[in-house]
Fold this sequence. Notes:
The structure is a homodimer.
Chain A: E1 2-3, E2 5-7, E3 10-12, E4 19-22, E5 29-33, H1 40-56, H2 60-75, H3 78-85, H4 92-116, E6 123-130, E7 138-145, E8 150-153, H5 159-173, E9 177-180, H6 186-199, E10 207-209, E11 226-231, H7 233-240, H8 243-247, E12 251-256, E13 260-264, H9 273-287, E14 297-303, H10 307-318, H11 339-352, E15 357-360, E16 382-385, E17 404-410, H12 413-421, E18 426-432, H13 436-446, E19 450-456, E20 475-478, E21 485-488, H14 491-495, E22 498-505, H15 507-514, E23 524-525, E24 542-550, H16 553-563, H17 568-571, H18 573-578, H19 589-600, E25 608-619, E26 628-640, E27 645-655, E28 661-672, H20 683-697
Parallel strand pairs in A: 1-5, 8-9, 8-11, 9-10, 11-12, 13-14, 13-18, 14-17, 16-17, 18-19, 23-24
Antiparallel strand pairs in A: 2-3, 4-5, 6-7, 7-22, 15-16, 20-21, 24-26, 25-28, 26-27, 27-28
Amino acid sequence: MRVRSYVNGGWHEARSGFTEVRSAIDGRVVAEVSSDGIDFAKALAYGRNVGGNALRRMTFHERAEMVKRLALRLADCKDRLYELSYDTGATKKDCFFDIDGGIMTLFSFASKGRRELPNARVAIDGALEPLSKEGTFVGRHIYTPREGIAIHINAYNFPCWGMLEKLAPAIIAGMPILVKPATPSAYVAYALFEEIVRSQIFPEGSVQFVAGSLGDALEHLSGQDVVSFTGSHSTSTALQSTAAVRENAVRFIAEQDSLNAAILAPEAGPGTPEFDLFAKEIVREITAKAGQRCTCIRRAIVPSAYLDEMQSTLVGRLQKVVVGSPRDEHATMGALVSFAQRDDVRARVEELAREARIVYGDPVHVNVAGGDDGHGAFMSPVVLRCDKPLAAKAVHAVEAFGPVTTLMPYEGIAEAIAIANRGEGSLCASVFGYNADSVDEIVRGIAPFHGRVLVVDRDCAKEQTGHGSPLAPLVHGGPGRAGGGEEMGGVRGVFHYMQRTAVQGSPQRLFTVTAQWNPGAAEDPAPRHPFEIPFESLRVGETFRSATREVTLADIERFAEFTGDKFYAHMDEAAAKASPFFKGRVAHGYLLLSFAAGLFVKPELGPVLANYGLDSLRFLKPVYPGDRVRVRLTVKEKTPRKPEYGEVRWSVTLFNQDDDVVAQYDLLTMNATKEHVPSAVIPSEANAVSVVEESVSGV
Amino acid sequence: MRVRSYVNGGWHEARSGFTEVRSAIDGRVVAEVSSDGIDFAKALAYGRNVGGNALRRMTFHERAEMVKRLALRLADCKDRLYELSYDTGATKKDCFFDIDGGIMTLFSFASKGRRELPNARVAIDGALEPLSKEGTFVGRHIYTPREGIAIHINAYNFPCWGMLEKLAPAIIAGMPILVKPATPSAYVAYALFEEIVRSQIFPEGSVQFVAGSLGDALEHLSGQDVVSFTGSHSTSTALQSTAAVRENAVRFIAEQDSLNAAILAPEAGPGTPEFDLFAKEIVREITAKAGQRCTCIRRAIVPSAYLDEMQSTLVGRLQKVVVGSPRDEHATMGALVSFAQRDDVRARVEELAREARIVYGDPVHVNVAGGDDGHGAFMSPVVLRCDKPLAAKAVHAVEAFGPVTTLMPYEGIAEAIAIANRGEGSLCASVFGYNADSVDEIVRGIAPFHGRVLVVDRDCAKEQTGHGSPLAPLVHGGPGRAGGGEEMGGVRGVFHYMQRTAVQGSPQRLFTVTAQWNPGAAEDPAPRHPFEIPFESLRVGETFRSATREVTLADIERFAEFTGDKFYAHMDEAAAKASPFFKGRVAHGYLLLSFAAGLFVKPELGPVLANYGLDSLRFLKPVYPGDRVRVRLTVKEKTPRKPEYGEVRWSVTLFNQDDDVVAQYDLLTMNATKEHVPSAVIPSEANAVSVVEESVSGV
C-alpha cells in the first residue's frame, strides 16, 4: 500500500523517498510512505485561507454537528481499521481503545460542543467585569478562532484515537488542521483519513494529511498557528526549537511520554481489594498495547512491607499473559510496533537494569502464539525491582516504551510522594487505597507534578476506566517531563485553538460584540409580550417590563402558612432585627420569585414550553412589608436545541419602589419554534379548561 | 545609592561588577547595581523549599489577605517612591499609573482572591464530570500550587506596577517569587522591595529580589518553576532558548512589546465625538511615560478620507505638549529612561522613516522645561505618516519604544482589519466608533490577533481607562509578536502559577480530595438540624433529610391564585398536554422551591442569618398533582466571610415518591459564627412575636 497525502485540495502521490513499513507480526512490507514533493508553505496557506475561512463562517454548533456526523460515519466502517491495525501489533482489545475509543471521543466532543458552547462564532469566558463607578465602562473575555492552521503530530501507538482526539477540538474551535501520523502506523491513519475525505463532511481545505516527513512545514508557522504534538521528549524539544516556532510564539502543545507512577497506599495490604486491584492494573497497563502508551505505569510504588508479596502476585498474573499475533485467538498481548522499537526498549531495559534487577520476563526471548519473535517484534513483559528508588536516577528518567515497569518500595507517605514526584512531571499517576486521609494526602502531594490522578478503590473498581486511558472530558498532559501541555478536557481543549481577548467598552458595545445581553445595554421593547414570540423571532435584548405589586405583611404570612416556611426573618419582627442583614421582617426570597413569575408570565398556551431552571440568583436587598416590586425580563441569550424548540436564557431583575435591584437571576425556558408552537386546544377541551380556571379563581 | 539584592533570607551587597544608573533628567549617577556573588541555585532552592512550603500551608484567603495588607502598607509610603521615580523621567501622572496603579492592582487581586477562590489549599475548576453509568466513577479538575519558584523579570518602565501585578497572583497561588527589576529603574523597585521586607508580611523565603544580572539562574529551572517576563521580543526569545527552560518545559509567560493599533471606524468622521476621542487618546498614549509602554499605540489607522484632518488635529494637540523635567510644574511629558534608550528610539525612527515620513516632531532636538536635551534623555513626540501601509513592512514590525506613532489610511473595514493584523499579534488595540455594525466587525476581525480590544465611544468616554492601561480583572498579553503569554485576568492569572490536574475516582473520594461535597458522596447525618449549628461547627457533608409532602391540585391552584402565575402548564390540562414536556398539569417550579424551603427550614432564631441566593437550579422531572416530594439538604462548601459569619453553600435535591430527582440546586445562606449567633429576643419583644405568630396561623 502506498500511503498518499491529502493537501492543497487533493490527493498527493509521492514519487520518491519512500520509507518501507513492515508488519509488526511477521515482518512483511505492508506500506510505503513518503511526502516528497509537497509544497508545505502552500498547504499551510491553503488550510488557513480556504479551510479556515469556511470553518470560521460556521457556528460552534454547526462545527460540533460535523464532528458528530464523522463519528456516526466511522462507526460504520470500523472493520477495515481493525484488520489493518493488527499488523501494527495491536490486539483486538488494543484496537478497541484506538478505534472505538476515538469514535467515542468524537461523540463526547460533539456533545460538549453543543451543550457547553453557544450557537455562535464567539464564545464568552467568565462574567462581565465592572470597570467603572457609573457602569458606563465594562469588560469581558471572548474567544475567537485563531486564524492559522493547526498541525497535529501524532504518535504511532494510537493512529485513530490520536488523530480524532486532536481533530475534534480543533474543528469545533474553527481551526483547519494538517494531520501528520507517525510513519510506523501511517497506513492505519491513512485508511481513516480516506474515509474522512470520502465523507465530504468537512469544508474544503479544513482537513489535510501528510504521511511521511513534515519537510520545512514548521519553518512557515506564524503566531496564529498551533502545533499539537504527541511523542517523545527529544523530538518535542527539537521541534520547539524551530526558529519560526520560537520567534513567532507559535502555540505548541506538547504531550510527551513520561515516567508515570502507581502508588499502593499504606493501608492497602494483601487481602484488601485495593491490593488486588493494583496488581491487576499493573498487568493491564504493561500488556495493553504491549506497554506502548505514553501514560503506561512505569513505576509501581509499594509499601516496603508488601513489596515481596506484590512482586509474587504480579509474577503469578503475568505468567498467564499470552504474547501472540493479534490474529491468534489465544493472544492476550500483541507485538511492539517494529523491530527498531523493540531494540530501543531492550536497550532501555539494560539501562534500568543498572539500578534495578529484573524479577520477571526475559527481554530477549519470548514464546509467541501464532508467530515467533524472530519474524515479529514480540517481547515478554518485564518487571524490574529497584530497592533504593530515592538513590536511583534512571528509573525516574529512562522510559522503556514497551511492556516494562519497575517495582519500588517506600516507607511512609512523604516518601511515596517524593518518589512519584521524582518523575519530574508525568501525564498521570494512580493511587490505590481506601483510607481517605492517606489517599487524600498522596493525591494532593503528587497533584502539582501530574496532569491526571486516578484513585482506584473498591467503590469505583467496576466502573473505573483505567490508569492509562485519557478521557475526552478530562485534561490530558502534564508538567515538566510530560511536556507542559494540555489536550482535551472538554471545551478546555477547544479553547486551545482559540484566542482569548479581553474586550472593554460600554455595556451596549459588549452586548453587540458578544451577542449576549447584559444589564446596562439597551432594552429593546418587545412588540408583543415575549411569551407570545416563537423562538426564531425572539430577539436578544427584547425586554418586558411588568406592572408593580405590593408585598404585604399578609402576603408574607399567607406564604409562610401555605409553604410551611416560617423562618424567623419572615415571621418574627424582633428576631429578624437580630440578624445583621435585616431591620425587621422580610419577604421570603421564594415569595419574591413567585410574585415575579406572576408579574411576567403570560398564562395562555404559546411558545414557552417549560421553565427548566435558574442560574446565579442573588437576593441583593431585603423586601419589607409594604415595598412594591416590579420585574424587568430581557432575552439574554438563545440556544437552539432541537428543530422543535430552543433554550432561552432571560435576564430577570426585580426592582423595588426606589428602583433598587432586590434580586437578579437568569431564568431558563424552553421555547417552541414557529412551526411547533403547541396548537390551540380543541373546543371540548377548551371548555374543560375554562371550568378549571373558574375553579381556580374560587380558591 | 547601592541597590542591594535580597536572597537566601537576607540582604546581599555585591562588591564588584556595578553598573551605574544615571538620572534620565540630568545625567547624574543615581544608583549602582550589581548581583555579583549571589549563589542563584541556592536562592532558587531556598525559595522553593522555605518560601514555598510556608506559602502552601496557607489557604487562598490567607494569602490574599497578605496581598491586601501589602497594599495598605504601600499606600502609606508612596511619597518616597514618587520622589525617586522622577529621576527615571516619569512625571507625577506617570508615577500615578506605576505606584498607585500597582497598589490598586494589589487590592483588586486580594479582593478577587477572597471572593472567587475558596478558603482552601486546593481550587476546583469546572463541574463534576460523570464518567460512568452507575455513577461510581467521576472526575473533576483541581488546581494546586506548583512546587517551584516564579522568576519575575520586569521591564524598566513600570518598576512598581510591574513588580506588584506579577507578585499578587503568584503569592495568592502559593508560589514563592524572585523579582528581577530592570536595571535602569532598579533603584525604584529596590525602594519598594525594601518596604516589602520591612513589612514582614510575607513568610520567610517567599519573596526574593535580585538587582542586576540573573547570572545562571535560568539554567537551574525545573518543570515546576515559572518565568514571567515583560520586555523585548529578542530578550524573551533568548531566555526561552535556555536549555533548562526548553528541556524541562518551564512555564514561560512572555509579555512582549508589540505594534499596537488604534482604528478610527469608518463613520467616525470629523465632528463626531469619537474623532476627537481618537486624537486625544493618541496624544495621551505617546506622551504618557514618554511613549515607553508595551501597549502604546504605534499605528493609528484612519479612514483615508479623514487622514489629513486627523493629522492636523493631532499636530494641534501635540503643539500643546510641554516636554520637561518631572520636577518642573509646566511639564506634561517627561524624559526617556536613558540616553541609550533615546539613541535606540532615534535609530528606530530612522528605520520607520524609510517607509513613512515624519509629519510632527524632531527626533533629535526638543525644548525642555526645567532642563535640556543635552543633559537629560528628553525627546519630542514624533508622528509619522505611511500612505501605503499594506505595502510597508517596518511600520508593522519595528517598534520605536518612545513617543512615536505612525498614521496610516485605510479604505473599507476589511482593509482596516488587515492593517491592524499585520502587527502579527499585539497586546491591545482600540476601536473608536459608534456604529454597532462596523465596530463589531472590526472587533471580531482583530480579536484573534489581540489580547485586549478597547472600544471607545461617547457612552464610555468619561469612564474608559485608556488604550494603554492593563487592568487587573482583564488578561494582559497577546499572541505572536506579543509573546503568546497572558498575565492577570483576575483568578486566571492566579492559575498561571498552579497546576491543573484531573482527578478521577469515586464520588466520595472526589469529595474528600476537593473538600467540596458532591452527590454520590456519603451523607453525614447531622446530629442536630443543620440550621442549629454555628458556622464553624457545621461539617461539609452534613445532611438533613426532610419529611414528605404531597403536592395537590389544590396547592397548584392556590399558588397560582396567590402569586398570579397562571401559566397554562399549571392551569390547563389540555394545554399542558400540548407541551412536549408534560403529560398534564404540573406544579410550578417556584411552588416546589417554596415547599422545599418549608420542608427544610427550621424557623427558630439561630445561626442561619439569610438566604442570599441560588445557583444552578434545574427542574429535572415534572411534578404532577398527587406526587409527594421530599428534600435532601447537604452542606456542600463553607467560605468564611467576616468574623461574624460565613457563607454556606448547600446542595439541595428534591425527590418524588419514586426517588427520582425532580430538582437540584445550590442554596446559599449566610451563617453566624458561634460567638455571633443572634441572641434570644428579650421577653417583651418575645411576646410581640408570639402574637404575630398566632396571627399567621390564622391566615
